[in-house]
Each structure stands twice: as C-alpha cells, then as structure tokens.
Write a structure and sequence with these properties.
Shape: globular
Helix content: 25-40%
Strand content: 15-25%
Number of helices: 22
Largest sheet: 8 strands, parallel, barrel
Radius of gyration: 26 Å
Number of strands: 32
Oligomer: single chain
Length: 703
C-alpha cells in the first residue's frame, strides 16, 4: 500500500502558481473531497518562491497544505529546483548550461505551468555542477523541507519532475570539469584514457573536452554514461538534502516511461530512478503517445519492471483533451485528442491491471494560460464538474471501497517471457545510428513486445541485472554489450535458462570494439554456431526472408548467417544460407535467429511475423497464463496469498465475448464475485466484456 492514510491514493496535480485562480481554491478542494480525491500534488517552483536571494514567498503554498488538512486530503510536494529564479541567472552567468555549439540556455515560460523560470531541458538554466548554484538551490530545498515536514497534510516529496534531461547538454565549464573528474576516477591516468579513446596527445587533464561529434566511438560512450551518472547524482543530492531535514515523509519520483528508446539520449533510466525512491511512477498521456493498446501496456509494464517489487503508480494520467500540440496534429479525434469518459475508464483500468496502486490526473482542472490551455483536466475551465470528472469520481470511489482491499494486495504474476533490456546496447545503437533515418533498436524492442503481447502472452521488460528472476528471455537487438554481461548471460543459460537472441549478439564488445570471432566474447559456444557472413543494411532489411517451423519469417535490421558447431540448424534464409540455430549449453537452451523479426513485426504493424512469435513460444515450451478465445482482449492475472483476480481488458469500442482457460500451473477457476463492473453478476462459460472497459473476476483454487 502506498499510504497508510488511504487504500488507493487517488488525486491530481493542482497548484502551479499561476493556476487555478485564487478565488476558486476553497471550492476546488471541497469538490475534490466530495468526489473521492484524496491527494493533490503541487509544483513548488524555486523560481516562484525565492523571489529574491534569501527571500521566500510561501503564502500560496501554505494555503494549499492548510486547505488539504481542512478537507482531509494529503499533499505531495513536487520540488522543482530546475525552475530557476531570474536573479540566479544574472548572479551566476558562468553556470549557464551550454549546448555543444555554445548556445546558452535561457529561462522561458513553463508550458505546463504558465510560469517563468524554465529552460528547454530537464536540468534547468544553470548547472548544479556549479558549487555556488548547488549551495543556493540546497538552501531552498532545506527551507522547503523545514517548513512543511511536520504539516499534517504532507504525504511526501516528488523529486526531479519526469526524471530526464536534454539530449545536447551540458557543455559548460563546470560540467566539463565534472566530466574530467569522472574520467580520472574511471581510468586513473591519462595513458589509460588515451588507449581507451585512441587519443594520444593529451598532456594534462584540462586538455580533455566533451565530444561535440556524437558517433560510435568510446569517448562518446563515456560522455553518455557520465551524463547519466551526473544527472542522477544530482537527483540523489536533492533526496539527501531533503532527507537531512525530513527523515520521515515519503520520497517519490516519476518518469515518462522513456527507457525505450530514450535511456541513452535523454537519461530516461526508469530502473535507476526507481532505485533511489520509495515510490516510483510515470507520466503517460495517450494524447501524446497514441491510444494503441500496446502503447498503454508498455507504459505501465516498463514501470512495473523498473519498480522491482516496490509499489508504483500512474503519477500523471490524462482526463481531458489536448489542443493544437504537435503530437496530435493529423490524428483522429478519437485517438486521444479528446478524452471521453469511457477513455478515462479504460486508460485507468489498464494501468491498474498492469499493477499500479495509486493514480493522479496531471491536471485537476485545465490551465487558463499558455499553449496548454484547456488540456488534460477532468473538470471544466471554471472547475465545474463534467461527465469526465464523474467517471473519475466513480473510479476513485470504487478503488477506495473496502471491498477492494484484497484486490490491491494482489500483484501481477511474472510474465511468461522476459524481453532483455541492456543500457549499453541502447547507448551503442544511439551512437551508431545517430544521424540515420533507420532506428532499428526501438523497432526491435517494441516489435518484440507487441509480437508476444498481441499473441496473448505477458512479456515483461527485464533489466540485465535481473535475469535470475526469469527462466526464458528474448533479446531483440543484441548488437552490443560488455564482456561481463556476456559472461552473466552464459552462466544464466548454463544454469538452465532459455535464451532466444536475434542477429549479431555481442557483435560489438567492450567499448564498442568489433569481435574478430562471431558470435563475440565466447558466445559462439553458448549458441553453438559461428558467423559465416554478416550484412548491416537496415535500410533494405525488409527484404530478408527466412523459414522457421514451416512458416516464412520477414527479417529486418541486420542479417547474420551461421555454420553450426554444437548446434543444429532450424531454418534458412531464402537464398539457402543457414539463418536459425538451436543449441544446448549446460542445462539451458539457446535459439539464435539471424535477423530481426521483431523489426519486421513492428514495421508491418503486426501484419507479418505473428506466427513467428507463436512458434518461438512453442519452441520455448511455454503456456499462456490465461488463454482467451478472442484476440481483441487482454488478460492479466493477479495473485496474493489469499486469493487471485483476473482482469479481462477490452480496449475496443465494441462489446467483446470470450472463453478462457487457465494454465495448469495455476490451479485456478472462476469464483462467484465480480469486482468490476459493479453492477455485473457472475457469468460462466462465455464472458462478455463491455466496450472500453474491464471485467475483474475473483478466482478460487480449483483443487
């Protein structure tokens, strides 16, 4: 449970300084209380509070917490030190963040708040690598925590809004100096650095500059990894500064479900961010992402994986329209541009089915100013109730009804198969294809996820550090990882794991160096095969064809043909070269597939390669947790020590019917209770799931 105060924390982001109007606060809080909301988050912007050096204006924020206490609600304080005061930009001009070409960050109006102090990045106009900036920002955070840590309405703090940073920052002198310190700690001396970077004329550490050319070289790998470490160290500094004052209240954070594909470019490392806090969450807005079911599942599933068993929540959910923004232009009205009540229901329920145990709308009511006017809020421009807010109310009251207490104690079962996520793989692909139109990494990762999901399985995202929790893994785009990671994978297979890998596993090894023997780093023994030929032509990868289990498979991305050693041939390319090899290694098994069928699935929007993913699961010997007769529906199984629950999810605009069957391992059968819809009585045999809705069934032991 996220909070001892509430069964299911449920609320919205409310105060962003310029909005909502002061005269409506009392009424809005009363409406929220009456409608079942129990938590508000507010943006505590440094630029809006420290109006002059050492001069703090807390009045509006004091009133927010007092109103929350009056209405029996709780408050999450979103610290925004990245919203920087204008006086600080004048006072610390040398600390202004720079792009590679020397462009200085400026403080602009924040599009999500219509308030000044925001740069076009996730780190602010000034770098926190400057000791003086960090000192004054730290004083603000200390004053913030001291002021509110004992307030009866506080629930906790949200750190570093959406946990990401700009792609082309930071090249200020302070960040350059921090980079040199990081390199010194990694390499020890200039000679070792010169050998690693192939730069042989550094006479002293100050000769080192961050790479302005982003390409597939070791120096660029180090730059990406430094930026990640540096920004997340700053996140930890924020946490430590608050914890030095407030040792009790919760520390939370939320990202944007951006690990695929923006872990390398924008630092969207959901696993790292989640590891630093007690509660992790995510922003997911269908208006910006699209309403295709796989996207909504991806948004929640990547966070469930990153949370690693901790509670997590949907920190910013859409409940209103989005006007005029580039993400929606050209899309259908029904594709998230407006949020109908039924949309709010299905988007919320899919998040819950994915495992969230709390939810907030990213606006209580829309902004009245700026380009995001009218966006996202469930309530009207004047705070009045709407049909959307009524749906939000119905969901919140249901979620906090005591009758659902056991439901929220249950957890989603582990997926039948895990999709392997390796940060270094993404970093290398980002560098290798930085200036290319083709982006095979994201297509492969999302294509594999879709291929399994849309065939009725639950594919989980699995970080390379978490592989021991899974028996079967799929590696969609394995072109680069480290020798240490190769050893870990080999040991995992040897102990009994089943690994399916697409073309070129570990082709690039440590520091991105190509192995002279392929598969690289000793993996030829694991896969029981050696490369004969390789082709890196992703622009025409759609022409690749191979056979597997009697079905033609469309390739994509790259091509790698093989000569089996200890392995056995299972498929050939259309030109006769060997494409697929299976092998036994120790107690485990491997399947090596010489192209990227996941790319083919993604590029054809599921039109090709559906049978490939079914055949892979057949080869793995895996059974679905729940088999449905209707492929338009999705099933998610949740279990706890006392009971089980089945979520049947219908994202379509028509009622759907299905039969179902549980995997034998579960010993489950349908019980007599239907938790949702609240008016629905138990059906047996063929079940009906209403349009844009779910059916939640209580399950019993069949033994």
């Amino acid at each position: 449970m996220l909070s001892s105060e509430f069964q299911f924390p449920y609320g919205a982001v409310y105060f962003r300084k310029s909005n909502p109007p002061t005269e409506h606060w009392e009424k809005d809080y009363a409406t929220a209380r009456e409608d079942g909301l129990n938590v508000f988050r507010h943006w505590f912007m440094w630029s809006a509070i420290e109006v002059a050096p050492g001069v703090y204006d807390w009045d509006d924020y004091d009133r927010q917490l007092d109103l929350a206490a009056k209405n029996g609600m709780k408050t999450i304080i979103a610290e925004l030190v990245q919203s920087m005061p204008d006086w600080a930009m004048r006072k610390y001009p040398d600390a202004v963040q720079l792009t590679a070409d020397g462009r200085k960050m400026t403080l602009n109006m924040g599009v999500s708040t219509a308030t000044g102090g925001f740069a076009k990045n996730g780190g602010g106009g000034l770098t926190l690598n400057c000791p003086e900036v960090r000192e004054v920002a730290g004083k603000f955070l200390t004053a913030l925590a001291n002021r509110y840590k004992d307030h009866p309405a506080i629930l906790g703090y949200d750190i570093w809004n959406e946990c990401n940073y700009a792609e082309d920052l930071d090249y200020s002198e302070y960040s350059r100096a921090a980079f040199r310190i990081w390199l010194r700690e990694k390499y020890g001396d200039l000679k070792a650095l010169a050998q690693a970077w192939y730069r042989y004329s550094y006479a002293e550490w100050n000769d080192i500059q961050p790479p302005a050319q982003i390409a597939a070289y070791p120096e660029c790998l180090d730059w990406l990894q430094f930026k990640r470490d540096n920004f997340y160290d700053q996140m930890q500094w924020r946490i430590d500064t608050i914890r030095a004052v407030d040792k009790t209240n919760m520390i939370a954070a939320h990202g944007v479900s951006g690990a695929i594909p923006d872990m390398a470019s924008h630092g969207c490392d959901d696993w790292l961010a989640a590891s630093k806090v007690e509660l992790y969450g995510y922003t997911w807005i269908q208006a910006r992402k699209g309403t295709e079911p796989w996207k909504t599942w991806y948004g929640v599933d990547i966070n469930r994986a990153a949370a690693r068993g901790k509670p997590f929540w949907h920190a910013e959910r859409q409940a209103g329209p989005l006007w005029l923004q580039p993400q929606v232009i050209g899309r259908d009205k029904e594709d998230g541009r407006v949020a109908e009540p039924e949309d709010i229901r299905i988007w919320s329920m899919m998040s819950m089915a994915g495992g969230v145990r709390g939810m907030m709308n990213l606006r209580f009511r829309p902004l009245l100013d700026g380009p995001l006017f009218g966006a996202f809020g469930a309530y009207g421009m004047d705070g009045a109730r709407t049909t959307r807010s009524q749906m939000q109310t119905d969901l919140g009251r249901w979620a906090n009804d005591p009758g659902q207490s056991e439901l929220w104690k249950a957890r989603p079962v582990r997926g039948e198969i895990g999709i392997l996520v390796v940060r270094e793989t993404q970093e290398w692909d980002y560098l290798l294809n930085h200036d290319r139109r083709e982006k095979p990494y994201r297509e492969a990762m999302w294509g594999a996820f879709r291929g399994f999901l849309e065939a009725g399985w639950q594919p989980d995202w699995v970080h390379i550090d978490d592989i021991d929790a899974y028996d079967t893994l799929y590696f969609p785009y394995p072109i680069m990882f480290t020798s240490q990671q190769a050893q870990a994978l080999a040991a995992w297979v040897k102990k009994g794991g089943t690994l399916v890998a697409e073309a070129c596993p570990g082709y690039f090894g440590d520091r991105g160096r190509v192995g002279q023997m392929q598969p690289n780093m000793g993996l030829d023994e694991v896969f029981g095969a050696r490369q004969v030929e390789v082709e890196f032509m992703p622009d025409i990868g759609d022409r690749i064809r191979m056979d597997f289990s009697g079905a033609q498979v469309r390739g994509g991305g790259f091509l790698q043909s093989y000569e089996p050693t200890t392995g056995s041939e299972l498929g050939r390319f259309s030109d006769g070269r060997i494409a697929i090899v299976e092998n036994r290694y120790g107690q485990g098994r491997t399947l090596l597939v010489g192209s990227n069928p996941s790319v083919g699935y993604f590029q054809t929007d599921g039109g090709e390669n559906a049978s490939y993913f079914v055949n892979v699961m057949t080869w793995c010997g895996l059974e679905r947790h729940v088999t449905l007769s209707n492929p338009a529906l999705f099933a998610r199984l949740h279990l706890n020590e006392r009971s089980g629950y089945l979520w049947l999810v219908n994202p379509t605009r028509e009622d759907q019917q299905t039969d179902m069957r549980f995997a034998g391992m579960h010993d489950l059968q349908q019980g007599n209770r239907v938790l949702w819809p609240v008016s629905k009585t138990a059906e047996y045999g063929t079940l009906t799931v209403p349009a844009r809705d779910v059916v939640i069934l209580e399950l019993t032991d069949s033994r």
